[in-house]
From TrEMBL:
It is found in: Endoplasmic reticulum membrane; Microsome membrane. GO terms for molecular function: arachidonate epoxygenase activity; heme binding; iron ion binding; oxidoreductase activity, acting on paired donors, with incorporation or reduction of molecular oxygen, reduced flavin or flavoprotein as one donor, and incorporation of one atom of oxygen. Belongs to the cytochrome P450 family. It comes from Hymenochirus boettgeri. Its cofactor is heme. This is Uncharacterized protein.
Length: 494
């Protein structure tokens, strides 16, 4: 009797499995999506993605199925774009259709479609216009954003000097100075590097970023329904985000007590004034949830990416001391040693500008970008992409496109210099993405990279006790971000 029951159960499971597979296969085949590997019911294409090598796996699939292909994360299809022409065609030529924000379950559980990075439609457009206007005009009648970066650069130089030429890992200093710029803009104040609140803020951000980009975070993005019921480090993301929310909320309440619409001190004041102006509009996107989530988005977008790019830059200069010396020659010729760099200097420093662009291209910090989504059913290259489908534009494919860059896998500032040594741009340079979802902090990030790096090279010569190689500077993928290897260096005053 028991044997018969087991046989019946196994037979039922087999028949059910065949029915599920047959139904899935029919639905899968009927879709006019781009080609791709055949998915397994419920589990999608998990077998085609090597653990900890998401980007490498996606690029390999692109070689097999073409620059536009479909992959299944669990039961949900995502369309991957892995070529400069394809990304340009989608995000620029069909910008409106591809302007949605895709699902990112590791962070969606907290943001829930709020904040400038995760809203869609008209609400997103209003938040984006407002944020761009405030960032553009911020500092009129007060200290400008450039002055705040210059001030922080001087604190950074002083902090480096305090090590008295002893070797150290520059990660903490770079994270602190970049974060402090955002704190100055959002909160209207900077923090001393050893401030306990500041250290807590940074540790929470780093914990979220590290866990979200880990293998656990990747699995959460692929199988959110399953991972929501499995214990692991990914469960701490929500806790950390709620703590960050409380930190920002405290600062918002402090601002509310002394708010003066005619004298706005920071971005929080600007948002609070806008909330007052639209308090009678029930559909206004200017409310407390969007305020908190927008500022969290700004911190995430601005801190880790810029500080990591600077870490890449310092290691690259260690490997290529001739590039460091050429940078210093240009800084000495244009700026000298008696004043701090300013952003107007950049137009007179083509080699420095080219080096910074090449650092961004080569380091490729966020190779997968942040997922987009199509806002309606879209016809693209003869295929039909249903409304709401996630789109992954692999920015790494444009930044290392051999048709756009002569030596795509080698660090080469000449990618951004013409035959006369003048700076030249390249449309395939997309570290900030492109199209409607172009990072709103692009101008701020470019200003920070220029001012922080020129201050360092102006004041110090870089050395390391370890002899690094060209292989060492190749970016190392951890989750969805590229990081340099851990290293130490010492700064010799010039």
């Amino acid at each position: 009797m028991d044997t018969a029951w087991i046989f019946t159960l196994l037979l039922s499971l087999l028949i059910s499995g065949l029915l599920i597979f047959s139904t899935w296969n029919q639905m899968y085949r009927k879709r006019n999506l781009p080609p791709g590997p055949t998915p397994v019911p419920l589990f999608g294409n998990i077998l085609q993605i090597n653990r900890g090598e998401m980007v490498k796996s996606l690029l390999e699939l692109g070689k097999k199925y073409g620059p536009v292909y479909t992959l299944y994360f669990g039961p949900s299809p995502v369309v991957v774009l892995c070529g400069y022409k394809e990304i340009k065609e989608a995000l620029i030529n069909q910008a409106e259709e591809f302007s949605g924000r895709g699902r990112l379950p590791t962070l969606d559980q907290y943001f829930k479609g709020f904040g400038i990075s995760f809203t869609n439609g008209e609400e997103w457009k209003q938040l984006r216009r407002f944020s761009l206007t405030v960032l553009r005009n911020f500092g009129m009648g007060k200290r400008s954003i450039e002055e705040r970066i210059q001030e922080e650069a001087q604190f950074m130089v002083s902090e480096i000097r305090s090590y008295k030429e002893k070797p150290f890992d520059p990660t903490n200093i770079l994270v602190q100075c970049v974060s402090n710029v955002i704190c100055s803009i959002v909160f209207g104040k900077r923090y001393e590097y050893d401030n306990k609140d500041f250290q807590k803020l940074l540790s929470l951000f780093q914990a979220v970023f590290k866990t979200a980009s880990s293998s656990w975070g990747q699995m959460m993005n692929i199988f959110p329904i399953i991972m929501n019921h499995i214990p692991g480090p990914h469960k701490k993301i929500m806790k950390h985000l709620n703590e960050l929310n409380s930190f920002i909320l405290e600062r918002v309440k402090e601002n509310e007590k002394t708010l003066d619409a005619s004298s706005q001190r920071d971005l929080i004041d600007s948002f609070l004034v806008k909330m007052q102006q639209e308090k009678k509009n029930p559909t206004s996107p200017f409310h407390m949830k969007n305020l908190l989530d927008t500022f969290l988005s700004i911190f995430f977008a601005g801190t880790e990416t810029v500080s990591t790019t600077l870490r890449h830059a310092l290691m690259i200069l260690l490997v290529y001391p001739q590039i460091e010396e050429k940078l210093h020659e240009e800084i000495h010729r244009v700026i000298g040693q008696n004043r701090s760099p300013n952003i107007e200097d950049r137009s007179k420093m083509p080699y420095t500008d080219a080096v910074i662009h090449e650092v961004q291209r080569f380091s490729d910090v966020i190779p997968m970008s942040v997922p987009h989504a199509v806002m309606s059913d879209v016809e693209f290259r003869g295929f039909t992409i249903p409304k709401g489908t996630n789109i992954y534009p692999l920015l790494c494919a444009t930044l290392r496109d051999p048709e756009q860059f002569a030596t795509p896998h080698k660090f080469n500032p000449n990618h951004f210099l013409d035959d006369n040594g003048c700076f030249k741009n390249n449309d395939a340079f997309m570290p900030f993405s492109t199209g409607k979802r172009l990072c709103i902090g692009e101008g701020l990030a470019r200003m920070e990279l220029f001012l922080f790096l020129t201050n360092i090279v102006q004041n110090f010569k870089l050395h390391s006790e370890f002899q690094f190689t060209e292989a060492d500077i190749n970016p190392k993928m951890k989750g969805f971000a590229n990081y340099p290897i851990d290293y130490q260096l010492y700064f010799v005053p010039r």
